[in-house]
Specification:
binds magnesium ion, globular, 9 helices, 12 strands, Ribosomal Protein S5, domain 2, eight-stranded mixed β-sheet, alpha+beta, binds adenosine-5'-triphosphate, 286 residues, single chain
Length: 286
């Protein structure tokens, strides 16, 4: 069995960038890489490929797309274990894609660069995200994607910010990335809001600015649901800096779980983690 781990990646704000070249396509933006993430175990088998996510057989088109690119015509038994919920802006689709791709690079001898490119391509083609893989490739806690896509097209910057504590509050149903990004009017609003805040943050990137600009982005882009808006407001009134994870019915804050509970009561599910500059990595070789 070959196993790999990849951090999760909160998207704080973003601006989609279109290109015919998938490696140039993606998003500018900023995010937070997390110590929590996804572990993938992979075994080559005879017969057809089987993917299980958190114990359940899944279609897992993103994972299958990665397998097809890295090891065409071969079959695998794939087990995906997620530390955080899917569809809440924690980039779990990308995290799983990178972990699977790293396992396959170990098995096939393909490079780490090819693995990240395959994960990015699968994400873009299947609608899992535009910038998570580029953010995850960066080995710093809070990558700023100043240019979209994978290197050499894509570029990331770092202002040296890290969060010893990240508290995540999940307040509602999944938000499908593909669903939101399929709405052309909304994408237009997201682009203009996103570009402005990315430029501001890359010039002056502090923790306070990250929360402030994330808040401005989600308000201007018009993607905050009522439950998230209400909880963020309540937390801010209690002196807690917090903002919405893109794209989820969820919030990130560096306050403690107790502080969050004091502010918003028993609303939502809470996950506690920290940011990380640790790389996605192989944890077991066959
Ligand atoms: P976001 O992209 O908003 O940060 P997310 O990545 O957790 O959130 P989506 O991108 O909306 O979730 O998920 C897209 C699709 O990818 C869903 O159909 C989901 O079932 C699938 N998916 C999510 N995580 C994984 C994973 N770790 N492995 C395989 N497939 C996944
Ligand atoms: Mg995703």
């Amino acid at each position: 069995m070959t196993s790999a781990f990849c951090p999760a990646h909160i998207t704080c704000f973003f601006s989609p960038v279109h290109s015919e070249n998938i490696l140039e396509k993606g998003s500018r933006g900023a995010g937070i890489r997390l110590r929590s993430g996804t572990t993938v175990h992979l075994d080559e088998i005879k017969g057809s490929t089987k993917v299980r996510i958190d114990g359940k057989i899944a279609n897992a088109s993103i994972t299958r797309h990665v397998l097809e690119q890295m090891a065409p015509g071969r079959s695998f038994d794939v087990t995906v274990e997620c530390d955080l919920p899917i569809g809440q802006g924690f980039g779990m689709s990308a995290s799983g894609a990178v972990a699977a791709a790293l396992c396959l690079s170990e098995i096939t001898g393909k490079s780490r660069k090819e693995a990240f490119e395959a994960a990015h391509t699968a994400e873009v083609v299947c609608g899992g995200g535009l910038g998570d893989v580029a953010g995850l490739m960066h080995e710093g806690d809070v990558p700023i994607r100043t240019r979209a896509g994978m290197p050499p097209f894509g570029r990331t910057a770092d202002r040296g910010i890290a969060f010893e504590r990240m508290t995540l509050v999940v307040l509602g149903r999944k938000l499908s990335t593909a669903g939101v990004l399929g709405d052309a009017e909304r994408v237009k609003r997201i682009c203009s809001a996103g570009d402005a805040v990315v430029d501001e943050f890359s010039e002056r990137g502090t923790k306070d600015r990250l929360f402030e600009l994330s808040g401005r982005f989600s308000a201007e882009a018009g993607i905050m649901g009522p439950a998230v808006a209400d909880a963020v407001k309540t937390m801010e009134k209690n002196g807690i800096r917090a903002s919405m994870c893109m794209l989820g019915n969820s919030i990130f804050t560096d306050a403690t779980e107790e502080e969050v509970r004091d502010a918003i009561g028993d609303r939502g599910r809470i996950f506690t983690t920290s940011s990380t500059d640790g790389p996605a990595r192989i944890i077991r070789k066959a």
